[in-house]
Amino acid sequence: MAHVITGVDDDLDTEVQPGRDTEPSRHRFRRADFIGQHLELAGPKVSVVIPTLNEAQNLPYVFAALPPGLFEVIVVDGRSTDGTVERAQQLRPDVRIVLEGRHGKGSALARGCAAALGDIIVLLDADGSADPREIPAFVEALLDGADFAKGSRNLPGAGSADITRIRGLGNRCLGGLVNVLFGTRYTDLCYGYNAFWRGALEAMTIDCDGFEVETLINIRVARAGLEVREIPSFEHRRIHGVSNLNAMRDGMRVLRTILRERARKKPQLAAAVAGGHRITPEQA
């Protein structure tokens, strides 16, 4: 069951009114267009963005679990040396390859999101930790009226086989700080499995390079007043290879991002920036 987090307001600047469209919708989709585990062609076009760096051994597992009916799969490669790009093209001839600009996950996601052409964008890790079979649950939350569907490992039915004790403690402390400073109710701050209507990109403005990107996105969509719903997600262990994440270094980057965003002027952005690409619950 999704954990609903409505658009939030803080005491910095102008008032935000969650859930009110500021312009007529250009595209409307019905929940009836989303059938079971298949993303029907009549429904929204779903783009999946997968950042990679030497993930050739993991891609067969990730690609095999992708649901049918996706509009496009985009691999954003950080100039891998293990044949990741060639493996992706072999496994899925229709894959779109985008080369990372600067080094880092944030830079890769920014490039991938900018290249995506779908109505809905899903961010998915390439190491096998995030289960692609959960994508329909994220899409359904968006069709139910959410602007942003956020994976959480801490909801009932969710969990993690990968997170270490120190990373879990850091995630709880940093998440608690964000909830206090920004009035959010996030249960999992630093998890990268997310989906959103492409109109929400205006609220994110991804301008960081590293693993702090999830924190940046979560803070900015909340401050913009978007409707966020958390989706139970289970994080598996990386299948092959070693993670590039460093708990202390990247934890400090996350902390600096939180403090910088708190000092940043609140965006003059209406809640429903995704209004042209979503439906309301009454229309479902």
Q: How would you explain this protein's 3D organization?
A:
The chain has 284 residues and is α/β, with parallel strands linked by helices. It has one domain: Alpha-Beta Complex (Spore Coat Polysaccharide Biosynthesis Protein SpsA, Chain A), CATH 3.90.550.10. The protein contains 8 helices and 12 strands. Helix 5 runs parallel beside helix 8 and helix 7 runs parallel beside helix 8. The longest helix has 18 residues, at 165-182.
Secondary structure layout:
Elements: E1 3-5, E2 34-35, E3 38-39, E4 46-52, H1 59-64, E5 72-77, H2 84-91, E6 96-99, H3 105-115, E7 120-123, H4 135-143, E8 148-152, E9 159-160, H5 165-182, E10 194-197, H6 201-204, H7 213-223, E11 228-232, E12 234-235, H8 247-263
Parallel strand pairs: 4-5, 4-7, 5-6, 8-11, 9-12
Antiparallel strand pairs: 1-11, 2-3, 7-10, 8-10
Helix pairs in contact: 5-8, 7-8
